[in-house]
């Protein structure tokens, strides 16, 4: 039917737009770290601007700026450190978390607009099964990806929006997954750096344990994703 053909063409155009957005975000992520564009992220240049922004308009504008910057695939860790340095541990912690949640919501919304309906209708049964499985375990999936980031922040959010992962799962998973690292950056980073200068075997053992736990979380996340693919094949 002509109406069905028009709808399928519209959905294909959305999928193409989603693919272009993903390609652009991946290119930006590489550019921020491997091209002269990274000079624009020099902390010595950004920190005074961020502090001036906070003095003029308050932390709320810093949250907005951070959220929009994350949508452009600027590294989350760098931006979090800058916000914490600009506003202090407590205010900086809430600004970093608020900006991350805003960036996650914006990217997730864009992915949902461009890709969710298209994947459900023309993605095929296997793609739909994987997407539904992700939705059923969406909170755990987001937490795992925040603890062990295997792709740029904005890319993960965009793809999640196109699947059955709901917005509340994205936001709660982002908050829970980011909480440990953001707390460390805000309240314990200076103590850790000072401890490293006076390192002891116990400190290195603790750091090794932390690295081992991160590696274990990554292995569990990969195993879980492999199980999702197997479930999709057998369904």
From TrEMBL:
Source taxon at top rank: Bacteria
PANTHER family the UniProt entry points to: GOLGI APPARATUS MEMBRANE PROTEIN TVP38-RELATED
Source organism of this protein record: Roseateles oligotrophus
Full protein name: TVP38/TMEM64 family membrane protein
Taxonomic lineage of the native organism: Bacteria, Pseudomonadati, Pseudomonadota, Betaproteobacteria, Burkholderiales
Membrane topology summary: Multi-pass membrane protein
Keyword annotations from UniProtKB, A to Z: Cell membrane, Membrane, Transmembrane, Transmembrane helix
TM spans (from-to): 55-74, 81-106, 139-160, 167-189, 201-221
GO cellular component, one term: plasma membrane
Domain spans labelled VTT: 74-189
Location within or outside the cell: Cell membrane
One Pfam family per UniProt: VTT_dom
Family stated for the protein in its record: Belongs to the TVP38/TMEM64 family.
């Amino acid at each position: 039917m002509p109406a069905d053909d028009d709808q399928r063409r519209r959905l294909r155009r959305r999928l193409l737009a989603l693919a272009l957005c993903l390609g652009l975000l991946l290119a930006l992520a590489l550019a921020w770290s491997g091209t002269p564009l990274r000079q624009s992220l020099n902390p010595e240049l950004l920190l005074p601007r961020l502090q001036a922004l906070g003095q003029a308009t308050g932390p709320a504008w810093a949250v907005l700026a951070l959220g929009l910057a994350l949508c452009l695939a600027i590294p989350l860790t760098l931006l979090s450190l800058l916000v914490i340095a600009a506003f202090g541990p407590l205010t900086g912690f809430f600004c970093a978390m608020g900006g991350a949640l805003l960036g996650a919501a914006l990217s997730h919304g864009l992915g949902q607009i461009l890709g969710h309906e298209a994947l459900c209708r023309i993605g095929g049964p296997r793609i739909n099964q994987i997407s539904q499985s992700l939705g059923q375990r969406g909170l755990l999936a987001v937490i795992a990806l925040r603890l062990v980031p295997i792709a740029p922040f904005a890319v993960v959010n965009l793809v999640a929006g196109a699947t059955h992962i709901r917005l509340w799962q994205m936001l709660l998973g982002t908050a829970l997954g980011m909480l440990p690292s953001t707390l460390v950056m805000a309240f314990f980073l200076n103590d850790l750096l000072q401890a490293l200068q006076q390192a002891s075997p116990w400190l290195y053992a603790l750091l090794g344990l932390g690295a081992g736990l991160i590696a274990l979380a990554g292995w569990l996340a990969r195993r879980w994703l492999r199980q999702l693919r197997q479930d999709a094949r057998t369904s």
